[in-house]
Automatic annotation (TrEMBL):
<dbReference type="Pfam" id="PF08352">
    <property type="entry name" value="oligo_HPY"/>
</dbReference>
<dbReference type="InterPro" id="IPR003439">
    <property type="entry name" value="ABC_transporter-like_ATP-bd"/>
</dbReference>
<keyword id="KW-0406">Ion transport</keyword>
<dbReference type="GO" id="GO:0005524">
    <property type="term" value="F:ATP binding"/>
</dbReference>
<keyword id="KW-0533">Nickel</keyword>
<comment type="subunit">
    <text>The complex is composed of two ATP-binding proteins (NikD and NikE), two transmembrane proteins (NikB and NikC) and a solute-binding protein (NikA).</text>
</comment>
<dbReference type="InterPro" id="IPR027417">
    <property type="entry name" value="P-loop_NTPase"/>
</dbReference>
<dbReference type="InterPro" id="IPR003593">
    <property type="entry name" value="AAA+_ATPase"/>
</dbReference>
<keyword id="KW-0813">Transport</keyword>
<keyword id="KW-1278">Translocase</keyword>
<feature type="domain" description="ABC transporter">
    <location>
        <begin position="13"/>
        <end position="259"/>
    </location>
</feature>
<dbReference type="InterPro" id="IPR013563">
    <property type="entry name" value="Oligopep_ABC_C"/>
</dbReference>
<keyword id="KW-0067">ATP-binding</keyword>
<protein>
    <recommendedName>
        <fullName>Nickel import system ATP-binding protein NikD</fullName>
        <ecNumber>7.2.2.11</ecNumber>
    </recommendedName>
</protein>
<comment type="similarity">
    <text>Belongs to the ABC transporter superfamily.</text>
</comment>
<keyword id="KW-0921">Nickel transport</keyword>
<dbReference type="InterPro" id="IPR050388">
    <property type="entry name" value="ABC_Ni/Peptide_Import"/>
</dbReference>
Amino acid sequence: MTTASPAPAGSRLRVEGMSVRFHLPDATVHAVTDAHFEVTQGACLTLVGESGCGKSVMAHALMGLLPGNATVTGSARLETGAASPVELIGAPERLLARTVRGRRIGLIPQSPAAHLTPVRTARSQITEALRELGSSETADDLAARAGLRPADLDLYPHQLSGGMAQRVVNAIALAGDPWLVIADEPTSGLDRPLVEVTMAELRRLADEGRAVLLITHDLRAAEQVADHVAVMYAGRVVSLAPAKEFFAAPRHPYAVGLLDALPSRRFTAIPGQPPELTNLPRGCAFRPRCTRAGAACELVPEMSAGHSRVACHHPVESHAAR
Ligand SMILES: Nc1ncnc2c1ncn2[C@@H]1O[C@H](COP(=O)(O)OP(=O)(O)OP(=O)(O)O)[C@@H](O)[C@H]1O
Ligand code: NI
């Protein structure tokens, strides 16, 4: 049975100044703008933010899976060993297909059912993934690691429950023993007990020495597993903080709003809507919804330095009582 991947301590994915634009006939979508973050060995970085803020696009950009109308700029370096780092942005398709996708980075896709072929059993899809990756592991062993019983593997996708379909795509994503696991909304549509199981599985992957990038709307789930939390708003990472500090004392007004919206907290949604990514406001994109906005916010705020980082001209001070 495979255990932790063999990447040395200190391995990381380092994203610097990454931007993604989609070129439409009459507009440009600013899907990701100037993203900076790191995912490190043994840790889980959780990326949160409202629907449409660019989370999945970021994941697909890292895997080289965006359509032809996308332009990706900046840098995303996979530093996992003595060999020279792999620059993912602009890497040739052959390199990504042969050495990155499924092998160094495994993607657990958003909406698992849509990623399974309806006319083939779970076993045949898992076996194919193992064969493509040249793995000697059996489908039954891999499936067992993902929490499936051998009998489940004889089922077709329409016979699988949401939780089982999730486990099948998890098994496929892990077939090549990837160092970085990107999980894009792995719990949407699952009930609470299954959310807990999925989060525990992601935590175990990180504890085994992998790195996990978890994309989710579910802040409660994030709190169980995250070491660091990155918040995206309108294509930008606006807050990057250790999870404990993020949940105890959020500094970005948008992060405060996201947490206040939780039923377990104030249960008060942030008024208004995020801007269109084809028509972003000048300066800080959160300004039209922000209670702390001032004149300075007409300029895009730089990311601050330090431990709990924010791109905000008027952050909530961490020591201030709210
Ligand atoms: N191929 C494309 N062409 C043009 N625009 C696109 C394309 N793919 C995504 N977008 C746009 O990029 C933006 C970011 O989308 P993305 O799927 O990353 O959002 P998300 O944060 O993952 O949202 P959700 O939480 O709903 O999954 C959206 O405005 C979306 O419409
Ligand atoms: Ni998404």
